Amino acid sequence: MAHHTTLTQERPVQAPKQGDQERDRIFDAFRRWGYCEANLDPLGIFAPLKHPDLEGLAGELADEARRLYCGTVGADFMHLVEPERRRWIMERIEAPA
């Protein structure tokens, strides 16, 4: 029998700070399109693609997002309908090591 975990813990809503909004904007782009730039071909036959939503992103936040979402391991989760499940995966990917 399958085990099903329910995510019920609610989080307090806080007003986003300006820096948080910028981080959210950059990380959201990489959550959605980072797989395009990911190095997923171990033989090196196919080069990673460029995505227009990622090309103009630079700086420390973009570097961190690239490290998390454009490496050799990917996570395809932005299509999930339940926001709690997306958040659960996102928090584990973006958690400090």
Automatic annotation (TrEMBL):
Q: Where is this region: Disordered?
A: 1-23
**Extent of Polar residues compositional bias:** 1-11
User: Could you tell me what this protein is called?
Assistant: Uncharacterized protein
